[in-house]
Amino acid sequence: MLSFFEPDSQIILVSESSLIKTVTNIQALTKTITNFDVVEKEAQSLTDTHPNITVILDSVIKINTVNNAVETKSCKVLKYDYLCICTGGRPKLIPQALDNKYVVGIRDTDSVDEFVEKLSKTTKIVIVGNGGIASEIIHKIRNVEVHWVIKDKHITATFVDPGAATFFQDSLNQTTPESSAKQMRYKEDGPKSGAALGPNWYQNLEIYGALSKSLPDNIKIHYESEIIDLTCDLSNPHPVKVTLSNGLVIDSDLVVSATGVVPHHEFEVVGSNLAFSEDRGIVVNEFLQTTVANIYAAGDVCSPTWQYAKHWFPMKLWTQARQMGCYAARSMCANLNKEEILQDFCFEIFTHSTKLFGYKVILLGLYNGQKLGQDYEILLRMTKGHEYIKFVIQEGKLHGAILIGETDLEETCENLILNQIDISPYGTDILNPDIDIEDYFD
């Protein structure tokens, strides 16, 4: 994006990984919802299409805000006029993971490779976490006994409510056709940080344990539980003893920690200090500008601190990382050229498009009643194995929606939320399957 806006400016990308994520097949579903694929390419391929970009395979260890320079691990000093920090997040591992080879954290492509390799020798596994990565591992995993440890009362609580979780529940032990597709990977020399997972990281991934076939009811869910102790006994056929907060003890071969991320920044700052939020994210304003005027930050590494639009809130997702990256580029260019810029429209409403348990999932606005207190109502429509639709309504207006399956309602819901149209005259008929609400509100 920077290269597009500033084709005559020199741009330097410092990357720990020789792989970069490239967005392809962009499909606009609505004004603010976009579907896209993410493919891995060699970082150096950027220079083929963008001659003003230089790629340096290294890591930044120091930022000098006085001299406007960064120092890399290999002792390179790079001067800058503007700097954007996009170092993402690192896995927030369970405390017992420290120096334990039987605990694997899932965040980037390298950690997925490690997980797949270890799983192939495993018959019994414990998975900790309740977000998108944990849910997709659970959905894809085969030929292994799985214990899913979640601290919530229902599955996939990061994204959905108990009703949607019940809808997904039927998919847990269904087998899916084996895919002949192979995961494309580039080989890297030496140990480096892997490229971050894209939104469709699991699409062609085949995850198999050491059992000859999948067992009926091979997934056991432990609700409202956390790991309180983890010990290893190599004399045991399942060497990892996991003790849960409910007192249950599970013997397993491997523990997967998929419990979210924390901002990733391991560099020293010399001069004017960057401000950090409680979760250690780099504080940014409405232009993604940090407390140092010519330094910007975007994605999982930053913490937005501006006054959010009513129907938007930050969440560590690929969707928002891409939006922030594009907007940071525009902001930097506007600053460089002394131009005014308005905040991007994508920050008017929270949107996220993904797949969970094989279903298309669209989240819009305050889809779980975030920021609404207790004074709102919910309308539901569910067809088992087909679709789940949830409307969050306050004072006769739609404020959020969860759309699971091929509902074709995303544009209608987006319009209803953005325009705050009064839908109270329609009552519960707004979700009557015999009424095509698109005809009224598109």
Task: Briefly say what this structure is.
InterPro entries: FAD-bd_OxRdtase, FAD/NAD-bd_sf, FAD/NAD-binding_dom, FAD/NAD-linked_Rdtase_dimer_sf, Rubredoxin_C. Its cofactor is FAD. The chain has about 450 residues and is α/β, with parallel strands linked by helices.
Largest β sheet strand count, sense and barrel closure: 5 strands, parallel
Query: Which residue ranges are poorly predicted, with pLDDT under 50 across at least 5 consecutive positions?
Result: 176-192
Strand order of the largest sheet: 10-19-11-13-15
Strand content: 25-35%
What is the averaged pLDDT score? 86
The general outline is globular
Number of H/I helices? 8
Structure summary, number of beta strands: 29
Total of domains: 3
What's the SSE blueprint?
Blueprint: H1 2-5, E1 11-15, E2 19-28, E3 34-42, H2 45-49, E4 53-57, E5 60-64, E6 69-72, E7 77-79, E8 83-85, E9 89-91, E10 103-105, H3 109-119, E11 124-128, H4 132-140, E12 141-142, E13 145-149, H5 162-169, E14 207-208, E15 219-222, E16 227-232, E17 240-244, E18 249-252, E19 254-257, E20 261-263, E21 268-270, E22 282-284, E23 295-297, E24 302-304, H6 318-336, E25 351-356, E26 359-365, E27 377-383, E28 387-394, E29 397-404, H7 410-419, H8 438-441
Parallel strand pairs: 1-4, 5-21, 8-23, 10-19, 11-13, 11-19, 12-14, 13-15, 22-24
Antiparallel strand pairs: 2-3, 5-6, 6-7, 9-20, 16-17, 17-18, 25-26, 26-29, 27-28, 28-29
Can you describe what's shown?
The protein has helices at 2-5, 45-49, 109-119, 132-140, 162-169, 318-336, 410-419, 438-441, and strands spanning 11-15, 19-28, 34-42, 53-57, 60-64, 69-72, 77-79, 83-85, 89-91, 103-105, 124-128, 141-142, 145-149, 207-208, 219-222, 227-232, 240-244, 249-252, 254-257, 261-263, 268-270, 282-284, 295-297, 302-304, 351-356, 359-365, 377-383, 387-394, 397-404. With 442 residues, the chain is α/β, with parallel strands linked by helices. The protein has a five-stranded parallel β-sheet with strand order 10-19-11-13-15, with helices on one face. It starts with a helix and ends with a helix.
